[in-house]
Every structure is written in structure tokens, then in C-alpha cells.
Design brief:
about 625 residues, alpha/beta, 2-enoyl-CoA Hydratase, Chain A, domain 1, 8-stranded mixed sheet, 6-stranded parallel sheet, 24 helices, globular, disordered N terminus
Length: about 625
Amino acid sequence: MAGFLMSVLRPVHFLLVAAAMVLQAATPGRAEPSAAIAEQPRDAAASRKKSTATIAHVRIAGSLPDGVGQGGLLADVAPHLHRLVERLDKAAEDSRVKGVVVSIESPDLGRARAEEIRAAIVRIQKAGKPVAAQLVSGSPVHYAVATACDTIAMPPAATLELTGVRAEMTFFKSMLDRLGVAAEILQVGEFKGAGEPFTRDSMSPQLRAQYESFIGDLYEQLVEHVAADRRLPADKVRALIDVGVFTSEQAREVKLIDSVGYEDEAVAALAKRIGEESPKVSRDYAERKLDQDFSGMGGVVKLLELLSGQKPSALSGRNKRIAVVHVAGEIREGKSADDLVMGGAAGSETVMQAIRDAAKDDQVAAIVLRIDSPGGSALASDLIWREVERANKPVVASLSDIAASGGYYIAVAADTIVAAPGTLTGSIGVVGGKVAVGDALEKLGVHTDVVSKGRNSGWLSLQEPFTPDEREAFLATMKEVYRLFTSKVAAGRKLDNKQVEKLAGGRVFTGRQAKEAGLVDRLGTLDDAIDEAKALAGIKAGEEVDRLLLPEPRGLFEDLFGAAARGGDPVARITAAVGGVSSLHGLLLARIAALPVLGPLVAETDTLVLLLSGRPQLLMPVRIRLR
């Protein structure tokens, strides 16, 4: 047994140590500061006078999803958004820290998550500490984070891309037709276009109309942000956006940034601003370090802790708690997935248990649902909605980048809904269907015989499209889900049915548009939602509360092996989705997804798998990729 254990641990040990070393060596933005502000060496003479002032350095890079994420040793290897915000807030409160440098290096951010970081930067400034941005990557969302800072610097070779807002959709119908694959996707709501990539070659007029609406509002929000933060006239900002791409020197000349220089120069300028000749620079401030020493018996113990994950330390003290329950990723039945391989999925079983845990915790005064989801299973969404509805404590929904369709379905059970201006929400409608591959198999010389009894026995068969009776039966289930959806919106938002119908049909809104339409109560961040929860629970505004993050973080071991069990590979997930009907069907779809030129189709895998489930889905109209 011991030999087997070590045979498993040895390669994992090697991979983890190698990965940690690569992460440390390859992490950009770690160059030492200039000599004038270099960190004091440990062996410096005791008589040398050292400054007690600290400049905190924080990198904003990589994927920063909502959710709880990893615990313990891995908390900052693949950090989630809340962990980055915690580090920025610590810099605001740390009396040693006199200024902060944020290095923005191509983080994977949406507009709502960018607002969370902007709000944390403002809290640092309110504490009397200047914040300098070193903008390494310059997309519009990255630039929106930088403009919240007091100064912006860019390296000489960097490019600022203030190019507006763009959405792209890829359509596969003609390709599927050539392969003999018939995608038959039904929808309730004329704007509910989640199946259009598989049934059309271009956007329907209804889909294009709603895209033009929310893209236009996101554009105006971009103009307003830049105009206010950089103190520029709105007309000039629009003209600059039409130019779009700037070298760092050009960006400085038109006042989009303040200086051209490297990170050490940005740190030196900040040191001068705070009046410190030789401050200490705290690299990767408040980041937890991964211990790379796995030697000996103690190393084996550490490795097991790394693999299994560590539960967060129990909250101490008598402070009241606000439970923050994360609903991140597509909504599915069963358990959640938040792993390195498969990405995020919000499982109804996991989310419901988290809500129950919060509801029965005597110290929890209120619950905040943090939703970052395009929707998913109608059944799973409805089950979560019921758990929110029956919670015996105040519930506030905080909407992140996307909280639409099933994500919004859950939100309407809350007492109050808070969204960011750039949140995409709404999409009140239903979609579902199947992909028939019988003709494609015939072309490959594969014939399927069928024996059945019952008029609609083949309604989920992938051999052929719906018959009229099957289509009618399936559509009836979708219409009932749509009725449930709209009735829950009407009751939760205190709107009459006619008002809801004007906002339903699959229409998508920005958070700002949703506020005007009455679909959300106010605009703000997660902190604003927590303040709302405190008020509903009768907690005074200045009273300190603890945050209880739920569901509990998962360990690396559970992530890796759990992902394998769930099928982390997109092709494997397609195969599994249809394998119950015929493994050949799965192999055909897997072959389609594996073609090198079909990367966009692989990106739609999760949507396709949900649509193949044979159940009504509450999904956004098309997977939205905004630039």
C-alpha cells in the first residue's frame, strides 16, 4: 500500500514542484525596483537607517473568476476575485502601506468584476493612499481598471487598445448541413437565440436588435468612465475611441495615460509622491506563498494537504456574519465544478446545501447570492430558486458580469437585487432541442434500425429530427417553464404580467438598463450588496460583520480527479452527452469538435451539451464574447 501511495505521489510531487518553480520564474512584473528604492538586504548593517514606509505591489493577472476557489496552500496560485479584493483592502487598512502600485497584466475580466477592483482601489484612495497603475495590457476593460488609479504608466513597447465594444458570434449551420447533421432547437421568446449558432448562418433580426441595444449602452458607459476619470470631454473620448489603437507615447500625448515608463520607474515616482526616499517595496503584497519543499515525511504531509485542500479557518469572535453564496458558471443539476480543467459550473445540489447551511447558522444574519452565470438547466434553476425563496433570512442578489436567464431566475427570489452597470442580465425565455445525426451516419455507411411503440417514444432520439407530435410535446414543456419564469419575475419584482412580457421574450439588458426597467433595485458592487443585506438584517451601517464564503473551497485532488470523472475534455463531454443513445452519435460529434479549424465550435461545447439534454434550458441567447 505504501509503495502504491508513493508511486502516485512521486509524479504529482514532481509536477507540483516544477509548476511552482515555473510560476515563480515566469511571473512577469517581478523585476527589482531601481537602486534608489531597492528593498533593504537582510544582512544590511544594523546601523543603517531603514524607512518604515511600505509601497504595496499587487499584480492583477490571469483568470480572476467569481467563486470561492481553492483553499489553503493554493489560494493564490489560481486566485479568485474575492482574494484579490481582500489583498487590496488589506493594503488600505495596513498602516505601514503608504502607497500601492497595481500592475495590470492581461487579466481575464468582465465589466462587473472590473468594477469590484475599481471599488477596492477607491477604498485605498479614501484611506489617504495614492494608487499608481502600471498598465502592461491595454484593452478597454483593463484600461477601465487603470483609470480608477491616481496615475497611469505604460511601458514604451506597450499598446493601448481603446477600441470600443465588439461582440462576435460564430454560426455552424452550413457546416452541419454538409455533414448531414440537423440541429433542431426550439425557443420560447422571439429574442431567445441560444440555439442560433446551430440553426442559422447569421443573427436573426431580433437577436441583432438586442445586441445593438446592450452593446450601445456598454459603449456609452465606456465613454462616461473615461471622460470622468481622465477629465476629458465626452466628444473627445468618442473621437479617441474611433482612433482606437495608441502607442504608449501617443496615449500620453492625448492624456489617456500620465507617463511612459517601466514598473521600477512607476514605483520610484510613487515613492517621490509619498515623500519617501527609500521605502520598502512589498512584492506581491499579501499573497500567500507556495512552499516548494516536499522532502521528507513532513513534505509528504504538506503534499497531502496541498492535494486535499484545507478548510478555511473557522470564523472567530461574536461578530454577526453575512454569508456570500457563489453561483458561478452554467447552472446544472448535481454538484458544482470549480476546477483547473473543466472550469466553473454551479450545481444545484451544492448551491442549495450552501444556502441551507447559511440559513441554519445562528450567526448568519443575511445571505448574499453572488451570481455570475449565463443560466442553464431550468430544473436546477428552479430548485435553487425554491431554496432562496424559503430561506428564513434576508437575501440580496449581487449580479456579476453575467446573471441572465437561469441566473436571473434565481435572483428574483431575493429581497433585493444589486447589479453592476455593465452586468448582462434578463434573458427571460426558454430554449431546448436536439441534434439529429442519422443522415450523417448514413453517409459513413452506418445504418440504425428502430423498434418502438408509443407516438412520441423517439422525442429525444438523435437519429432523426422531431416529428410534429414530438415537437409539440417538447414545446409544451418549454411553454410551461416560460410561464413559471415570467410568473416568478412578476411576483419577485412586483410587476404585472403585461410589464413582464415587454421585458421577457429572451431580451438581454445591461445592469443600467435593467435598473431603469425595474428588473434590479440598484447599481453597485458586492460590497454594496452586503451593505443592503446588513440593512435588511437590522445591522447598523458601521457595525463590523464577518463574511462567510460558501460553498467551501475544494482541494486540488478533488478538482483533478473530479474533473476526470466528469469528463474535463470538451470532446469527451459531447460523447458522454449522447452516448446513452448511441456511442457512434457521440463519436461523430466528437470528430466534428476535434477538427482543428473548429475551435469556436468547441467553445460552444457546454451550450451544445445542455441543449442535447432533452430538457428545457434557461440560457442566454448565444454565448456572448465581448471585446
